Amino acid sequence: MRITLLEPFYSGSHKQWADGFAKHSSHEVQILSLKGKYWKWRMHGGAAALAEQFMGMDEVPDLILATDMLDLATFLGLTRAKSKDIPTAVYFHENQLTYPWSPSDSDTKTGRDNNYAFINYTSALAADKIYFNSNYHKESFLDALPQFLKQFPDNKGLENIERIKEKSEVLHLGMDLSRFDNIQSKEIPDGAPVVLWNHRWEYDKNPEDFFLILLELKEDKVSFRLVVLGESYARSPKVFEEAKINFKDEILHFGYADSFEEYAAWLKASNVLPVTNKQDFFGGSIVEAMYCGVTPLLPNRLSYPEHLNQNEKHLLYYDREHLRTMLGNFLCKNNQGRFSNSNIRKYDWENSI
To answer: What does the H/E/C string look like for the chain?
Structure first.
Protein backbone atom coordinates (compact mmCIF):
# COMPACT_ATOMS: atom_id res chain seq x y z
CA MET A 1 0.00 0.00 0.00
CA ARG A 2 1.17 3.52 -0.79
CA ILE A 3 0.52 6.02 2.02
CA THR A 4 0.90 9.78 1.84
CA LEU A 5 1.51 11.14 5.35
CA LEU A 6 0.64 14.83 5.77
CA GLU A 7 2.50 16.59 8.60
CA PRO A 8 2.19 20.39 8.74
CA PHE A 9 4.32 20.56 11.93
CA TYR A 10 7.36 18.47 11.08
CA SER A 11 9.36 18.92 14.27
CA GLY A 12 9.92 17.31 17.67
CA SER A 13 7.68 14.38 18.55
CA HIS A 14 5.62 14.88 15.37
CA LYS A 15 8.73 14.44 13.23
CA GLN A 16 9.94 11.47 15.26
CA TRP A 17 6.61 9.71 14.83
CA ALA A 18 6.35 10.46 11.10
CA ASP A 19 9.92 9.30 10.45
CA GLY A 20 9.46 6.21 12.60
CA PHE A 21 6.23 5.27 10.88
CA ALA A 22 7.81 5.68 7.45
CA LYS A 23 10.86 3.65 8.47
CA HIS A 24 9.12 0.76 10.19
CA SER A 25 5.89 0.45 8.21
CA SER A 26 5.54 -2.49 5.84
CA HIS A 27 3.90 -0.04 3.42
CA GLU A 28 5.45 2.57 1.16
CA VAL A 29 5.17 5.87 3.04
CA GLN A 30 5.81 9.31 1.54
CA ILE A 31 5.89 12.29 3.92
CA LEU A 32 4.66 15.70 2.78
CA SER A 33 5.56 18.24 5.44
CA LEU A 34 6.10 21.84 6.52
CA LYS A 35 8.57 23.16 9.08
CA GLY A 36 7.54 22.75 12.70
CA LYS A 37 6.90 26.38 13.68
CA TYR A 38 4.02 28.90 13.78
CA TRP A 39 1.58 26.23 14.91
CA LYS A 40 -1.51 28.45 14.58
CA TRP A 41 -0.62 29.38 11.03
CA ARG A 42 0.08 25.73 10.24
CA MET A 43 -3.46 24.83 11.34
CA HIS A 44 -4.93 27.60 9.19
CA GLY A 45 -2.60 27.63 6.19
CA GLY A 46 -0.94 24.23 6.18
CA ALA A 47 -3.76 22.61 4.21
CA ALA A 48 -3.27 24.95 1.26
CA ALA A 49 0.51 24.52 1.22
CA LEU A 50 0.35 20.73 1.47
CA ALA A 51 -2.47 20.57 -1.09
CA GLU A 52 -0.12 22.23 -3.59
CA GLN A 53 2.58 19.63 -2.83
CA PHE A 54 0.05 16.81 -3.13
CA MET A 55 -1.32 17.98 -6.46
CA GLY A 56 2.24 18.14 -7.78
CA MET A 57 2.83 14.44 -7.11
CA ASP A 58 2.80 12.10 -10.07
CA GLU A 59 1.58 9.07 -8.15
CA VAL A 60 -1.78 8.57 -6.41
CA PRO A 61 -1.61 6.99 -2.93
CA ASP A 62 -3.89 4.27 -1.59
CA LEU A 63 -4.34 6.13 1.72
CA ILE A 64 -4.00 9.71 2.95
CA LEU A 65 -2.88 9.85 6.60
CA ALA A 66 -2.97 13.31 8.21
CA THR A 67 -2.07 14.46 11.69
CA ASP A 68 -4.15 16.71 13.92
CA MET A 69 -2.32 19.89 12.88
CA LEU A 70 -3.84 19.65 9.39
CA ASP A 71 -7.20 21.12 8.39
CA LEU A 72 -8.17 17.91 6.60
CA ALA A 73 -11.54 19.17 5.33
CA THR A 74 -9.90 22.13 3.59
CA PHE A 75 -7.14 19.92 2.20
CA LEU A 76 -9.68 17.53 0.68
CA GLY A 77 -11.66 20.42 -0.78
CA LEU A 78 -8.55 21.81 -2.47
CA THR A 79 -7.46 18.42 -3.82
CA ARG A 80 -10.82 16.83 -4.65
CA ALA A 81 -9.89 16.29 -8.32
CA LYS A 82 -7.21 13.88 -7.13
CA SER A 83 -8.23 12.81 -3.62
CA LYS A 84 -11.99 12.20 -3.99
CA ASP A 85 -11.68 8.38 -4.11
CA ILE A 86 -8.78 7.98 -1.63
CA PRO A 87 -9.55 6.78 1.93
CA THR A 88 -8.39 9.15 4.66
CA ALA A 89 -7.31 8.79 8.28
CA VAL A 90 -6.25 11.34 10.89
CA TYR A 91 -3.87 10.68 13.78
CA PHE A 92 -4.34 12.83 16.88
CA HIS A 93 -1.10 13.55 18.74
CA GLU A 94 -3.00 16.27 20.60
CA ASN A 95 -6.14 18.31 20.10
CA GLN A 96 -6.99 21.95 20.67
CA LEU A 97 -10.39 21.20 22.20
CA THR A 98 -9.05 19.85 25.50
CA TYR A 99 -5.47 21.20 25.46
CA PRO A 100 -4.99 23.78 28.25
CA TRP A 101 -4.16 27.19 26.80
CA SER A 102 -1.41 29.34 28.25
CA PRO A 103 -2.79 32.27 30.28
CA SER A 104 -0.37 34.52 28.36
CA ASP A 105 -1.91 33.65 24.98
CA SER A 106 -3.95 36.62 23.75
CA ASP A 107 -6.31 34.39 21.73
CA THR A 108 -7.96 33.11 24.91
CA LYS A 109 -9.29 36.62 25.60
CA THR A 110 -10.95 36.97 22.19
CA GLY A 111 -12.41 33.49 21.81
CA ARG A 112 -10.41 32.83 18.67
CA ASP A 113 -9.07 29.62 20.19
CA ASN A 114 -12.38 28.03 19.08
CA ASN A 115 -11.04 28.10 15.53
CA TYR A 116 -8.38 25.51 16.24
CA ALA A 117 -10.72 23.19 18.11
CA PHE A 118 -13.20 23.49 15.26
CA ILE A 119 -10.51 22.48 12.76
CA ASN A 120 -9.89 19.33 14.81
CA TYR A 121 -13.64 18.67 14.87
CA THR A 122 -14.14 19.07 11.11
CA SER A 123 -11.01 17.02 10.38
CA ALA A 124 -12.50 14.21 12.45
CA LEU A 125 -15.77 14.57 10.53
CA ALA A 126 -14.01 14.47 7.16
CA ALA A 127 -11.78 11.45 7.90
CA ASP A 128 -12.81 7.88 7.23
CA LYS A 129 -10.86 6.71 10.28
CA ILE A 130 -9.63 8.49 13.43
CA TYR A 131 -6.76 7.33 15.62
CA PHE A 132 -5.84 8.68 19.07
CA ASN A 133 -2.50 8.06 20.78
CA SER A 134 -4.10 7.01 24.08
CA ASN A 135 -7.45 5.91 25.42
CA TYR A 136 -7.51 8.97 27.67
CA HIS A 137 -7.08 11.17 24.60
CA LYS A 138 -9.93 9.50 22.73
CA GLU A 139 -12.36 9.60 25.64
CA SER A 140 -11.55 13.17 26.68
CA PHE A 141 -12.01 14.46 23.11
CA LEU A 142 -15.34 12.69 22.68
CA ASP A 143 -16.53 13.80 26.12
CA ALA A 144 -15.70 17.44 25.38
CA LEU A 145 -17.49 17.62 22.03
CA PRO A 146 -21.07 18.09 23.34
CA GLN A 147 -20.25 21.15 25.44
CA PHE A 148 -18.08 22.56 22.66
CA LEU A 149 -20.82 22.27 20.02
CA LYS A 150 -23.62 23.50 22.28
CA GLN A 151 -22.04 26.96 22.49
CA PHE A 152 -22.95 27.71 18.85
CA PRO A 153 -26.31 29.36 17.99
CA ASP A 154 -27.85 26.72 15.71
CA ASN A 155 -27.06 23.72 13.48
CA LYS A 156 -24.84 22.52 16.28
CA GLY A 157 -24.20 19.09 14.74
CA LEU A 158 -24.53 17.12 17.98
CA GLU A 159 -25.60 14.11 15.94
CA ASN A 160 -22.09 14.05 14.44
CA ILE A 161 -20.54 13.02 17.75
CA GLU A 162 -21.76 9.45 17.39
CA ARG A 163 -20.39 9.31 13.84
CA ILE A 164 -16.99 10.45 15.08
CA LYS A 165 -17.08 7.93 17.94
CA GLU A 166 -17.80 5.04 15.59
CA LYS A 167 -14.75 5.94 13.48
CA SER A 168 -12.40 6.35 16.47
CA GLU A 169 -9.77 3.90 17.72
CA VAL A 170 -6.71 3.99 19.97
CA LEU A 171 -3.33 3.55 18.32
CA HIS A 172 -0.63 4.14 20.92
CA LEU A 173 2.34 6.20 19.86
CA GLY A 174 5.07 4.23 18.13
CA MET A 175 8.52 5.07 19.50
CA ASP A 176 12.10 4.15 18.69
CA LEU A 177 12.85 2.89 22.19
CA SER A 178 15.44 0.29 21.22
CA ARG A 179 17.88 3.06 20.31
CA PHE A 180 18.41 3.56 24.06
CA ASP A 181 19.67 0.00 24.53
CA ASN A 182 23.39 0.46 23.87
CA ILE A 183 23.87 3.81 25.63
CA GLN A 184 25.95 3.79 28.81
CA SER A 185 24.86 5.68 31.92
CA LYS A 186 26.62 8.77 33.21
CA GLU A 187 28.66 8.16 36.35
CA ILE A 188 27.25 9.80 39.48
CA PRO A 189 30.16 10.59 41.81
CA ASP A 190 28.57 10.43 45.27
CA GLY A 191 25.88 7.86 44.60
CA ALA A 192 22.97 10.04 45.76
CA PRO A 193 19.59 9.30 44.13
CA VAL A 194 19.01 11.41 41.02
CA VAL A 195 15.73 13.25 40.36
CA LEU A 196 14.88 13.80 36.70
CA TRP A 197 12.96 16.40 34.68
CA ASN A 198 12.91 15.63 30.94
CA HIS A 199 9.90 17.51 29.57
CA ARG A 200 9.51 20.72 27.57
CA TRP A 201 9.97 23.87 29.66
CA GLU A 202 6.36 25.00 29.34
CA TYR A 203 3.48 25.95 31.60
CA ASP A 204 1.40 22.81 30.98
CA LYS A 205 4.20 20.66 32.42
CA ASN A 206 3.72 22.48 35.75
CA PRO A 207 7.38 23.03 36.70
CA GLU A 208 6.29 25.23 39.62
CA ASP A 209 5.03 22.26 41.65
CA PHE A 210 7.98 20.10 40.62
CA PHE A 211 10.60 22.55 41.89
CA LEU A 212 8.57 23.63 44.93
CA ILE A 213 8.34 20.04 46.17
CA LEU A 214 12.07 19.58 45.65
CA LEU A 215 12.76 22.82 47.54
CA GLU A 216 10.62 21.65 50.47
CA LEU A 217 12.49 18.34 50.57
CA LYS A 218 15.83 20.14 50.44
CA GLU A 219 14.79 22.32 53.37
CA ASP A 220 13.97 19.07 55.21
CA LYS A 221 17.60 17.98 54.63
CA VAL A 222 16.68 15.24 52.13
CA SER A 223 19.66 14.52 49.86
CA PHE A 224 19.36 14.14 46.10
CA ARG A 225 20.96 15.15 42.82
CA LEU A 226 19.06 16.83 39.99
CA VAL A 227 19.09 16.43 36.20
CA VAL A 228 16.97 18.91 34.23
CA LEU A 229 16.62 18.14 30.52
CA GLY A 230 14.13 19.26 27.88
CA GLU A 231 13.71 22.02 25.35
CA SER A 232 13.41 25.63 26.55
CA TYR A 233 11.60 28.43 24.74
CA ALA A 234 11.73 32.21 24.70
CA ARG A 235 8.81 32.35 27.14
CA SER A 236 9.78 29.44 29.35
CA PRO A 237 8.52 29.79 32.95
CA LYS A 238 10.78 31.90 35.20
CA VAL A 239 10.90 29.09 37.74
CA PHE A 240 13.67 27.42 35.71
CA GLU A 241 16.01 30.37 36.28
CA GLU A 242 15.12 30.34 39.98
CA ALA A 243 15.82 26.60 40.12
CA LYS A 244 19.36 27.10 38.81
CA ILE A 245 20.03 29.17 41.92
CA ASN A 246 18.01 27.16 44.45
CA PHE A 247 19.56 23.84 43.44
CA LYS A 248 23.06 24.91 42.46
CA ASP A 249 24.54 22.32 44.85
CA GLU A 250 22.34 19.47 43.57
CA ILE A 251 22.42 20.07 39.80
CA LEU A 252 24.34 17.59 37.66
CA HIS A 253 22.96 18.86 34.35
CA PHE A 254 20.63 21.73 33.52
CA GLY A 255 19.47 22.37 29.95
CA TYR A 256 18.98 20.80 26.57
CA ALA A 257 21.20 17.81 25.84
CA ASP A 258 23.58 18.37 22.93
CA SER A 259 22.97 14.91 21.46
CA PHE A 260 20.68 11.93 21.78
CA GLU A 261 23.53 9.96 23.35
CA GLU A 262 23.95 12.54 26.10
CA TYR A 263 20.19 12.69 26.69
CA ALA A 264 19.97 8.90 26.96
CA ALA A 265 23.01 8.71 29.28
CA TRP A 266 21.42 11.18 31.69
CA LEU A 267 18.15 9.24 31.66
CA LYS A 268 20.02 6.07 32.54
CA ALA A 269 21.80 7.88 35.37
CA SER A 270 18.52 9.05 36.90
CA ASN A 271 16.50 7.18 39.51
CA VAL A 272 13.12 8.86 39.90
CA LEU A 273 10.81 10.96 37.72
CA PRO A 274 8.17 12.88 39.71
CA VAL A 275 5.61 14.01 37.12
CA THR A 276 3.59 17.15 37.86
CA ASN A 277 2.24 17.75 34.34
CA LYS A 278 -1.19 19.30 33.95
CA GLN A 279 -1.65 17.81 30.50
CA ASP A 280 -0.34 14.86 28.48
CA PHE A 281 -2.22 13.05 25.75
CA PHE A 282 0.44 10.32 25.75
CA GLY A 283 3.65 11.31 27.54
CA GLY A 284 6.53 10.33 25.27
CA SER A 285 9.28 11.77 27.47
CA ILE A 286 7.91 9.83 30.44
CA VAL A 287 7.86 6.58 28.47
CA GLU A 288 11.47 7.18 27.41
CA ALA A 289 12.54 7.62 31.04
CA MET A 290 10.62 4.53 32.13
CA TYR A 291 12.24 2.52 29.35
CA CYS A 292 15.65 3.61 30.68
CA GLY A 293 14.81 2.28 34.14
CA VAL A 294 13.72 5.49 35.87
CA THR A 295 10.95 4.97 38.44
CA PRO A 296 7.98 7.23 37.59
CA LEU A 297 5.72 8.85 40.18
CA LEU A 298 2.62 9.65 38.15
CA PRO A 299 -0.69 11.46 38.67
CA ASN A 300 -3.65 9.07 38.72
CA ARG A 301 -5.18 10.81 35.71
CA LEU A 302 -4.61 11.71 32.06
CA SER A 303 -2.83 9.02 30.03
CA TYR A 304 -0.47 7.89 32.78
CA PRO A 305 -2.33 4.87 34.22
CA GLU A 306 -2.18 3.31 30.74
CA HIS A 307 1.61 3.06 31.04
CA LEU A 308 1.54 0.93 34.19
CA ASN A 309 0.58 -2.68 34.73
CA GLN A 310 -1.51 -3.76 37.71
CA ASN A 311 1.53 -4.39 39.91
CA GLU A 312 2.81 -0.86 39.30
CA LYS A 313 -0.33 1.08 40.27
CA HIS A 314 1.27 2.01 43.61
CA LEU A 315 3.33 4.55 41.63
CA LEU A 316 0.20 6.66 41.04
CA TYR A 317 -0.46 9.61 43.34
CA TYR A 318 -3.66 11.58 44.01
CA ASP A 319 -2.57 15.10 44.98
CA ARG A 320 0.48 17.26 45.56
CA GLU A 321 1.00 16.21 49.17
CA HIS A 322 0.78 12.56 48.22
CA LEU A 323 3.51 13.09 45.62
CA ARG A 324 5.70 14.92 48.13
CA THR A 325 5.40 12.02 50.56
CA MET A 326 6.10 9.40 47.89
CA LEU A 327 9.14 11.25 46.57
CA GLY A 328 10.47 11.94 50.07
CA ASN A 329 10.19 8.25 50.97
CA PHE A 330 11.94 7.23 47.75
CA LEU A 331 14.85 9.62 48.33
CA CYS A 332 15.22 8.88 52.03
CA LYS A 333 15.51 5.17 51.28
CA ASN A 334 18.23 6.10 48.78
CA ASN A 335 16.37 3.90 46.32
CA GLN A 336 18.51 3.34 43.25
CA GLY A 337 16.87 0.23 41.86
CA ARG A 338 15.88 0.23 38.21
CA PHE A 339 12.30 0.31 37.00
CA SER A 340 11.29 -2.65 34.83
CA ASN A 341 10.44 -1.54 31.31
CA SER A 342 8.66 -4.76 30.31
CA ASN A 343 5.20 -3.16 30.13
CA ILE A 344 6.21 -0.26 27.90
CA ARG A 345 8.22 -2.24 25.38
CA LYS A 346 4.90 -2.50 23.55
CA TYR A 347 5.40 1.10 22.35
CA ASP A 348 8.60 0.28 20.46
CA TRP A 349 8.03 0.35 16.71
CA GLU A 350 9.10 -3.26 16.37
CA ASN A 351 6.23 -4.30 18.65
CA SER A 352 3.57 -1.79 17.60
CA ILE A 353 3.44 -1.92 13.82
So the answer is: CEEEEEEEEECHHHHHHHHHHHHHCCCEEEEEEEECCCHHHHHHHHHHHHHHHHHCCCCCCCEEEEECCCCHHHHHHHCHHHHCCCCEEEEECCCCCCCCCCCCCCHHHHCCCHHHHHHHHHHHHHCCEEEECCHHHHHHHHHHHHHHHHCCCCCCCCCHHHHHHHHEEECCCCECHHHHCCCCCCCCCCCCCEEEECCCCCHHHCHHHHHHHHHHHHHCCCCCEEEECCCCCCCCCCHHHHHHHHCCCCEEEECCCCCHHHHHHHHHHCCEEECCCCCCCCCHHHHHHHHCCCEEEEECCCCHHHHCCHHHHHHEECCHHHHHHHHHHHHHCCCCCCCCCCCHHHHEHHHHC
Backbone angles phi, psi at 232, to 5 degrees: -100, 160
Full-model pTM: 0.92
Quick: pLDDT tens for 95-151: 999 976 655 555 655 555 789 999 999 999 999 999 999 999 999 999 999 999 999
